[in-house]
Amino acid sequence: MKKRFLTSLQLLICLLCALPCSAVYGSQDQPFLAGSQLPRFTLPAPESQQILSYLGLKTTAPFTISQIGATLVFIEVLSALCPACLANTPVVNRLYQVIQKEAALARDVKIIGICIGDSKTQIDAFKKSFRVPFPLFPDANLAIAKALGVMETPTMIPATPSGKMLWGHSGMIRDFDGLLKVLRDNHKKR
User: Fold this and answer.
1) pLDDT tens figures, 9-37
2) Which range marks the domain in which residue 60 is found?
3) Fewer Cβ within 10 Å of end Cβ, the chain: N or C?
């Protein structure tokens, strides 16, 4: 009896880990419509000169997407405790590396992560454990997630600095090459 219970529990845990982390952080009927405007939100001040430089910011102060020195900002909304986010992190890290190797993309495309519901300690451990090379910003009280209407993590939202959403994707990135092609195509249009 005990063995069967443990087997059932293990199966349930595996099934839950395979699902994206759902959340009730907002309720948009049609989120992420291409051409829609991102809601305005403020991100916390960058913690290092390296992040300031990467994002093209002038001062260490809270900032908005429009202040980032890029033609395209790739926003990943994630949680450091979400199994799908953990599985997706190597893919986003790879995307960052590919972008950094192409001069035009490195200049014009920036990736940021918004960690919803996570403490600074959790974010720091996640960043260290997964060697995340791009900036991660906390959204401990879920204000940004609510403003964005994010209902699932991970969610990716490429946007212009003016806040125009190019598209949105909830769930893991399964077609890296397809994503990279769309990113490059959108970059050429800018």
Assistant:
1) 343 333 334 333 433 223 333 456 678 89
2) 20-189
3) N
